[in-house]
Amino acid sequence: MTDLLIEYGFLREADLALAVINRLEPGDLLSWERRLSVLVTLGNESTLRALLRTLRTGEAGVVLRELSNRSLDEHLDASYWRSIAALLREGTTRYGEILPLLASAEREVITASSGLWSEWTRAHVLTRLGQAGEAAEAMARFHARADERSLERVRFPDGLELSVDAAAAALGTVSAGAGEGEDRAADFLLAQPVMQWAFELPEGARIVKIGRGGGSLLVLDDLDQVSALDAATGKLLWRAAYPRPGEKRRHPVPAAFQEVAAPPALLRKPGKRLDTAALPRDFAVAGDRFFLLRGRTLTAGAVSDGTTLWTAALPAARSDRSGPERSRQDLRFAVGEGVVVALSIGTNEIQAYDTTTGKLLWQLALGPVGSAETSAGAFHSLNTGVGIQGGRAFVYGHGAAIVDLASGRPIWTLGGDPASLFPLVLRPDREEEPVAVASTEPPAGDIGTAPRPTLATFGELTRFDFQATAGGGQLEPRVFLGGDATLLSPAQYWVQSRGEQGGPAFGMLSPGNLWLMQDGKVRRISSDLPVASRELSMTGTWIGRAGNHLWFLEGSILNHADFGRERVSRLSLHDLGDPAFLRATVVGNQVIVRGAAAIRVINALSGEVLGQATFPTTLLDYLGAFPEEFTPGAANPAGGDFAWQGRFYRNETTAAGIALPVGDLVEGLQYHTVFGRRLVVSLGRADDDSDPPPPAPGAPGGAPAVAPTPR
Questions:
Q1: Using an 8 Å Cβ cutoff, are 411 and 120 in contact?
Q2: 8: left (phi over 0), alpha (psi -120 to 50) or beta
Q3: d(C-alpha 480, C-alpha 499), whole Å
Q4: CA–CA dist 272, 274 (Å, integer)
Q5: Tens digits of per-residue pLDDT, 430-469?
Q6: What is the rounded CA–CA span in Å between residue 580 and residue 578?
Q7: Which of 172, 265, 490, 676 has its CA 20 to 30 A from that of 354?
Q8: 324 has pLDDT over 50
Q9: 319 CB-contact burial (10 Å; exposed 0-12 / middle 13-18 / buried 19+)
Q10: Could you check whether the bond before residue 423 is cis, i.e. omega within 30 degrees of 0?
Q11: Distance (Å, rounded) from C-alpha 226 to C-alpha 665?
């Protein structure tokens, strides 16, 4: 009967029926196990805790073996944590309700670790409430308990780990929303901009990324060449090739083999087999130098002349199954605040180098690669990455961590296994066979003596985000009650589910927050305590952030996620031309959208269209003289083939392709934008003095091409 009630979704009725069975037949442990799972599915944490206590003390009329009792303790601990996380999600207005829950958890002395995570959480809550004295007392108790056990990190019930050394710094304070003021950096584009200059790459090359360093604009193409342009005039300063060591020089693809539009039915859908797709190799410009990868070597070059300033060999994966192209996807890096942080996906290691000298500052192993390595492409360039912000780095490969840039020590380590798994297996005291729910060895750094369950013990598990409100991760009763499952906090779910789903995922660090994107949703999670989550449904390619406002480009639609008001909106861009022409970026508190013949400027905080300007006549004439190869070609023929990181381009009709960014650059009163395959154009304010634009292709007086110089 109870199985039928559950099958048809009558969970409250199933709970009542199971309660009757528990009272009449207390020795029916399967009914107890089923009822505990039903209560979790209903979100009835207070009743769940009361039932766990009843079983633990023997008041339910059944005596359990010790391992089962320890498992009950772990579940009681986790239940308190889920309730606290739900209040954390609501913001400081509900923080006062957290303190009684923490007091209850501490009074019950559930597990050896609960006293530590609860003390730190108490300090966090009191800090956010402005009670500095009480917060300091809680931190003193936290450090005393950690020192007593000689601990370096503390594990939370959902598997999060906090560094003891960084615990005080991770408390966090209430901060104003960044980017909510007036920053109208793109206003100059509304006063009918002029074409300052245009630059063409050699025929057969495609622009991959652009970057600005001082007075130079650097362009990376798909032939492994970097071209440096004078930002004021567009004149080519130098060009050099940076191929992988031992790799043959890349040559342009003949025009007959250039991209052609493919029927949408032949194209792979986003998220399906994207382990064969890729991002272009990382490229960054910072100050007077640029950074790129040459095979497994991180290279720093001078913006002034392209000379190599220093190199650093990155760790090699234990198995490189796919050759040179695969190894490029296996490495990610980011530059910021005088440090370049590199991640080797195959080895799960991080290295940090001084941008000036190339000196190795620190290195960190995120942990073993794990079983996901046997699943080809579980982790690849579209669901791994590195981001730097405010003295911290967010690194996500096989594991994930928020790392202090100065010391290289992880502040938060994400991806660890939670303490409690479902169904909760109960065994009577007289039974002697081993308990399947628990492992016999505690993990390294664990402060308790009770055996802990591990995900490996159960093999395949269904993971659920216990704060999910939309899309994948939502607690589905039929699935949850139908097999082995685990409940995870939002950041933990994002970290662990990337490898299983195999599709694109993108993580970004901003002051005070993590922004995690996957499976049609975006989550905003505090980086001081990565548990409380706000989520909105969203798709498209990320183009930028202004405070609590995130913007995405998807075909001819501009998507806006407003986390301040918790709503999403869509703005049509159909009147700007072919969606394959569209490019967009966020500058200050404005969104710039560039179409086939016009530029639109939008308020990034409200979605209001501020104005629009058509291209200058000189630019329209210039583009009109281009041959067919300068049209977008097979970019996005299906009308929605996007990843979070970019729009897919293909050289073959059924290939997964490469995700190229859709954003441009604004520096001062200059707007650098990319057209087609190999054209960079600079637009500026109408009253600026500028050189006359170059002649259109094929016109008399055209500048000769500059031959590439190998490096």
A1: no
A2: alpha
A3: 20
A4: 5
A5: 654 444 443 333 344 333 333 444 444 334 788 898 888 7
A6: 5
A7: 172
A8: no
A9: exposed
A10: yes
A11: 17
C-alpha separations of 301 from 207, 449, 708 in Å? 19, 53, 16
- Is there a contact between 213 and 288 (Cβ–Cβ < 8 Å)? yes
d(CA 467, CA 54): 27
What is the secondary structure of 118-146 as a DSSP string?
HHHHHHHHHHHTT-HHHHHHHHHHHHHHH
Q: Is 8 exposed, middle or buried (0-12, 13-18, 19+ CB in 10 A)?
A: exposed
Which helix (H) or strand (E) segment is 107 a member of?
helix 98-108
- Which H/E stretch holds residue 270? none
Q: Which phi and psi angles does 104 have, rounded to 5°?
A: -65, -45
- DSSP for residue 170: T
**End-to-end alpha carbon distance in the chain:** 75
Q: Is residue 453 a contact partner of residue 86, using CB atoms and an 8 Å limit?
A: no
Q: What is the DSSP string of 500-535?
A: HH-S-EEEEEETTEEEEEETTEEEEEESSSTT-EEE
Q: Distance (Å, rounded) from C-alpha 125 to C-alpha 546?
A: 27
What is the phi-psi region of residue 75: left when phi exceeds 0, alpha when psi lies from -120 to 50, beta otherwise? Answer: alpha
Both tokens assigned to 639: 């009308």
The torsion of the CA quartet 298, 303, 306, 307, rounded to 10 degrees, works out to: -70
Q: Quote the DSSP letter at residue 184.
A: -
Element (H, E) at 36: helix 29-42
Question: What is the model's pLDDT at position 631?
Answer: 52
Q: How far is CA 162 from the centre of its chain?
A: 20
pLDDT at 655 (0 to 100): 56
Is 266 buried (19+), middle (13-18) or exposed (0-12) by CB count in 10 A?
Answer: exposed
Distant-in-sequence, close-in-space partners of 710: CB < 8 Å, separation ≥ 6: 240, 241, 249
Q: How many CA atoms within 13 Å lie on the side-chain side of 551?
A: 27
Q: Which of 253, 250, 247, 236 is nearest to 201 (CA)?
A: 236
Return the structure tokens found at 191: 């006063």
Q: Using alpha carbons only, what angle is made at residue 66 by residues 61 and 68, rounded to the nearest 5 degrees?
A: 70
**Angle 402-517-460 from CA coordinates, rounded to 5°:** 85
Query: Is 413 within 8 Å of 398 (Cβ atoms)?
Result: no
- pTM to 2 decimal places: 0.86
Using CA atoms, how far apart are residues 38 and 44, in angstroms rounded to an integer?
9
Q: How confident is the model at residue 572 (pLDDT cuts 50, 70, 90)?
A: very high
What radius of gyration, in Å, describes the C-alpha atoms of the chain?
Answer: 28
Tell me the per-residue pLDDT of 16-73, one tens digit each, with 9 for 90 and over. Answer: 999 999 999 999 999 999 999 999 999 999 999 999 999 999 998 889 999 899 899 9
CB atoms within 10 A of CB 698: 9
- Looking at 345-498, which runs of residues are DSSP E strands? 349-354, 360-365, 385-389, 392-396, 400-404, 410-414, 462-465, 485-488
